[in-house]
Amino acid sequence: MARHISFGTPVNDAERWAFSLLSDELPKDYMLLTNVEIPTHTGQAMEVDALVVGEWGVYVVDVKGYIGRLNAGLHAWSLDGRDVDNSLSKANYVARVLAGRLKHKIPVGVYAPWCQGMVFVTGRKGEEILVEKDQGNLSIYTPAKIIQALTKEWGLTAPRKHQVTEQQKEMVLDTIGQVAIVEQRNQKIQDFIKLKCLFLQQGLEVWQSEYNPGGWTAPWLLKILVQSQFESALDAEQHEIRLREEFKRMQSLSGCSGVPFCAPLIQDGEQLVLPIRMPRGIPLNIFEVEQQSTYQLLEILRRSISGMQQIHRRGYTIGGWASNCVFLSDQGDVEFIDIKDNLTIAEDIAEYAKAFLTLAEQTQQPRIYHWYRDAAKGTTVDLDAIRCDLSALIELGVCDTVPQRIEIERGAVIDHHFKLESFISSTDHSQLWQARHIQGNYPCAISVYNDVDEQWHKLNNIYRSLSKIYHPHIEKVLSFGQLPESNDLFIARAWAQGVALDEVKGVEIGQPITWFIQILTALQYLHNIDIFHGAICPKNIICNHDTATLVNFGIGSDIAQIHYAAKYADPTLWDVEGEAEKDLYGLVASFIDSLVPKKLHQDDGAAGIVEALEQFDREWFGEALYDACLKILKFEFRIEPNRDYAEQLGLEDEEVVQAGM
Fold this sequence. Notes:
It comes from Shewanella maritima. The protein is α+β, with helices and mostly antiparallel strands. It folds into five domains: 183 residues, no CATH class; 87 residues, Phosphorylase Kinase, domain 1 (2-Layer Sandwich); 109 residues; 93 residues, Phosphorylase Kinase, domain 1 (2-Layer Sandwich), CATH 3.30.200.20; 163 residues, Orthogonal Bundle (Transferase(Phosphotransferase), domain 1). The protein has a six-stranded mixed sheet, sandwiched between helices. A six-stranded antiparallel sheet has the order 11-12-13-14-16-15. Helix 7 packs antiparallel against helix 8. The chain is rod-shaped, with a radius of gyration of 41 Å. About 1% of the residues have low confidence.
C-alpha cells in the first residue's frame, strides 16, 4: 500500500476508483499525490490527477474514465469513432514543466529524477474498455497494466534508466510544497489525529488515533466509512446504516461495564466517523494468558461475566466475538468493541464461553473451566452461578497457584489450609486422610480422588449442594478443588468423631435404632432436595455413642468397595432401582450386615442379608419395621411421596423423639 496524500477531492467516480486502486496496489515505498497542483515558473499552477513518485521515475498520471474502444495515436485520439482530447500530450507537458522546476532546484552534482506523463484509462471500474495504441510504447494503460508500468523498468520512456534516490524524492516533495502540512491535515478529523491503520477493507477503515484538543491527549479508535470507496451506492448505504445502528447501541449501553465510551458521529460529506475511546489492554488474540496469575484470570472472567450480564439486561447481545474485538488488561479490564446485537442470549453465552475457554482452563479450577466447557456446548446458560463461583474463589483465597505438584504424604499441605496428619485408608483410585486445619487448629478429613474429568460433574453437584445445607447427621463439607499440576481432586470435610458402623465394639441397647433413625431422617431431608448419597455402606456411617453421621457422598464406594451394599443386591434389580430406594437399601443392608454376626449368615449375597434379618425376633424388631426392611432388601418397597420415611417403615413417634429427631 502506497503512501497516499490527497491534496483535493476527486471530481468523479473514475478518479475515486483509480486512486483507491493505485493506493492499494502500489508498493509501500511509493508516494501517491492526488489532485495536486504543479507550480510553473510564472507562478501559476497546473492541476494533475495523480503524481506517483516511484522507484524508476516520477509519473504525472492523467485519469480518464473512458468506456468503449479507445484508439490512441501520437497526435489524435478517438473513442468509438468520435474525437477526444489527447490526454497523454497534456500529461507529458506537465511532466516537462515539473522536470524543469526540479532542475532549477537541485544542487550541483545531483541529477534530477526522470519525469514522464502517463494516462490511466479506467473504463467502468476496470471493465468495458479496450485501448488500441498506434505505437506500442505510448504510456497509456488500462487497470490490467498500470501497476506494472509504474513499478517496472520497462514502463519508463527515458533513454537511460536510473533508480530514484531518497534525496531526489525529497526534492520532488519540496518542489510541490507543503506536502507535510497537507498530509497532516489529511490525518486529522476535527480534534482526532489518525496514527495507525488497523483495518482497511473497501470503504471501511479502523484507525488508532489520539484526541488532541490542546494541552493533553487521549487514545481513541476511529471507525471511518468512506462512501465513495464502495463498489455500489447500495453497499455504502447499508454500511452507513450499520454504523449508525452501532452508534445508537453504544449510546444505549453507556455506563455498562465492558462497553467503551463513544463520541457523537462525525460527518463531513466524504466520510462518516464513529470515535470510540481506545479500550484498555490488548486484544484477546495477543493476550499472554500464560503470564497471568490465577487471581488475574479469575478477575478477568468475573468482569467479563458482569459486563455481559449488564449488556443482556439492557436488551442487547454482543455478537462480535472475534478475538481482536475483545480487549483485556492485566488489571482485569474487559471491553467489547464490536457489539452487534445479532445473537440470542443463549447463543451469545455459548460464543462467549468459546472465546474465554482458554483463560478458564488456565485457572486450573474445575468449578470454573467445566462451566465454560458446558456453556460452549450450549448445555448451560447460568451466568449467576459462574459469577458466584468466581467471586467465591477470589474472596476466599482458595486458588493460590502452587508451582509444583503436591505429594500426598504425611505433612503435606492441601489448598494452603489443610495439613495431612495420619493416613486412614486407600484404594487404587483414592485416599482418605485425617488432617488438621492449620489456621483453625481443628481436625478434619481429606479425601483425594483421581480422574478429575470422570468424576467432576457428580462431585461438583454434590459439593455445591452440601456446602449450602446443614443437618446434624450429615457431614459438613469445608472445601473442594483440584490439586496443582495433577488431575486429582480433594474434598475437605469436618472430622466426624467415632468409628465406622462395622467397627463398633460393645453396642449398647438402643444405640442401633437411634443411629438408624438419625441416618433415616438425614436421608429424608436429602431426598426432599434431590440429593442422593449413592454409596451407603458400613464404612460411610460413622457412629459415636448416641450420634451417627453419614459421610463420603457419592465418592465413598471405592474406599469401602468390599462393604458396598450393592454387592448384596441382584444386579438387574439394582440397575433399574431408583436413587432413593438404593439409599434405603444401603442403609438397611449396612445395619443388618454389621450388627448380625457373620456366622449367622453364611451367604454374602442378597440372600445372606435376608437370612441375617431373619435372625432377629420379629416382635423385638417390630412387625412393621421388620416387614418394611424385608421389602427393602427384596426391592419390593416403594416410597410414598409426601410421607415421612420413619412413618412408612412403621417407626413410632416416640422412637423418633428418643433418637433426638
